[in-house]
């Protein structure tokens, strides 16, 4: 007597598969880990809620309100009048605004370039010479001092009559130089002063990024006979790219918002040599009470920063590293 094996039909296979899937789904749903993940999600929401609420109240709502005001003529004393795009068309013929944009761009380029180069140099020196906590704390000291205080101190240091720097360069038969009073160099002076203040902090950020680079890569490069410059150029800089881009983007946004150093040291002078866009916005809003026009300038500045940041992140691929 012979027996034949009964092959399961496709319908039976599908039915059995559905049953197994339901069983697995039920089993996974009843696992303790699923409950824990739900609790973690609820805890994350509670922790994020204050930050989200703060963003909505102190950033999102003022941004929306500022965009709305940019389409009005409002002097803070009377009711606002809707004027459409008149404030934006007015910007194109405002020579002071165009000059403020030019001065701000000069400041940003000088500040970002010098601050990044000096910060990178400090990071390399810290990695190769000294990694002590005392050195790191010393580098942070200028960054901990407010910009207003830095501006007041440098007013005395750079003074053409009693300034320490002019006394020093006097021994070289140079000067005296009016660093803040000369319209040709005033904005460069402001940029370099702020570079000196921030280069230690920038260096520490880059130094922290260097610690994530595996040491075996440098050891392999040394074995192959690579010089210090070659290791820096072909290993450190490419692998440091995500941190470097982040530092440049954050520094760029902060540089476009320069206000306090200029307000204390030069008040926008001499002439309009240091009248940056933030200072001009402040003058229009709170000295001339032209809030609608000031809001239009602020919206243009915000849009420019968003575009520059997105372009820079896309160009540099900040989320990618050569270690990936």
UniProtKB/TrEMBL annotation:
The chain crosses the membrane at residues 43-64, 105-126, 138-158, 239-259, 293-313. Residues 101-312 form the ABC transmembrane type-1 domain. InterPro entries: ABC_transporter_permease, MetI-like, MetI-like_sf. The keyword Membrane applies. SUPFAM superfamilies: MetI-like (SSF161098). It is a multi-pass membrane protein. Its main location: membrane. Keywords: Cell membrane, Membrane, Transmembrane, Transmembrane helix, Transport. Residues 1-37 are annotated as: Disordered. Residues 1-12 have a biased composition (Polar residues). It is found in: Cell membrane. Belongs to the binding-protein-dependent transport system permease family. This is Sugar ABC transporter permease. It comes from Gleimia hominis. The lineage of its organism: Bacteria, Bacillati, Actinomycetota, Actinomycetes, Actinomycetales.
């Amino acid at each position: 007597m012979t027996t034949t094996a009964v092959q399961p039909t496709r319908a039976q296979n599908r039915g059995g598969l559905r049953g197994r899937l339901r069983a697995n789904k039920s089993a996974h749903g009843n696992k303790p880990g699923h409950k824990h993940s739900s609790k973690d999600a609820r805890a994350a929401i509670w922790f994020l809620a204050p930050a989200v609420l703060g963003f909505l109240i102190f950033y999102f709502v003022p941004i929306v309100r500022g965009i709305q005001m940019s389409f009005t003529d409002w002097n803070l004393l009377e009711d606002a009048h809707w004027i459409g795009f008149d404030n934006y068309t007015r910007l194109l013929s405002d020579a002071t605004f165009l000059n403020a944009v030019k001065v701000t761009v000069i400041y940003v380029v000088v500040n970002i370039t010098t601050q990044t180069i000096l910060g990178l140099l400090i990071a390399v020196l810290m990695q190769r010479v000294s990694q002590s906590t005392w050195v790191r704390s010393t580098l942070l000291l200028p960054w901990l001092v407010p910009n207003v205080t830095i501006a007041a101190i440098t007013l005395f240091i750079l003074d053409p009559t009693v300034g320490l720097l002019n006394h020093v360069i006097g021994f070289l038969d140079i000067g005296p130089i009016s660093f803040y009073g000369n319209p040709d160099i005033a904005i460069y002076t402001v940029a370099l002063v702020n570079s000196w203040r921030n280069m230690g902090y920038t260096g520490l950020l880059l130094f922290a990024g260097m610690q994530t680079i595996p040491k075996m890569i440098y050891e392999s490069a040394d074995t192959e006979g690579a010089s210090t410059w070659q290791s820096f150029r072909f290993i450190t800089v490419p692998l440091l790219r995500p941190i470097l881009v982040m530092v440049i983007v954050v520094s760029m946004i902060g540089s476009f918002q320069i206000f306090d150093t200029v307000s204390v040291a030069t008040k926008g002078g001499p002439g309009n040599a240091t009248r940056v866009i933030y200072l001009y916005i402040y003058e229009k809003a709170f000295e001339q009470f032209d809030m609608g026009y000031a809001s239009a300038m602020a919206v243009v500045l915000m849009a420019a920063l968003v575009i520059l940041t997105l372009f820079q992140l896309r160009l540099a691929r900040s989320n990618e590293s050569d270690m990936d």
